[in-house]
């Protein structure tokens, strides 16, 4: 595989875009060798859902679009970032407020840490922010059949 792969998509800040972002990332990673039916793909799917949902719900109409960037470096590190143009950084809500929402960043942090990755939040030059995760890249070396034997 190449030393560096990257892909990007910009979507409208609309609830329907959450599904589009999730599908785009999972489909791209499948092209790069990560089967969509793995635990890693499920984890990425949930992280992207939470990141995209935050970009749609918490920008209060001040970010008409958001961008999802994906990068794979030397088959070792996967980076996924979601950028919007709203300047406010995500923050953890008080426990009383978290009953119906506010758990997205907690979920993202936990899943990222569970995979041995890290979360970063950076301001953009344009005044918005990028929330990104970096995970170790792990792709099954060989496909496995349903009988538990490796395919030839």
UniProtKB/TrEMBL annotation:
Residues 11-133 form the Histidine kinase/HSP90-like ATPase domain. Pfam families: HATPase_c_2 (PF13581). Keywords: Kinase, Serine/threonine-protein kinase, Transferase. The keyword Zinc does not apply. GO terms for molecular function: protein serine/threonine kinase activity. It comes from the Bacteria. Signal peptide: none annotated. InterPro entries: Anti-sigma-factor_SerPK, HATPase_C_sf, HATPase_dom. PANTHER family: ANTI-SIGMA-F FACTOR RSBW, ANTI-SIGMA-F FACTOR RSBW-RELATED. This is Regulatory protein. It comes from Streptomyces collinus (strain DSM 40733 / Tue 365). The lineage of its organism: Bacteria, Bacillati, Actinomycetota, Actinomycetes, Kitasatosporales.
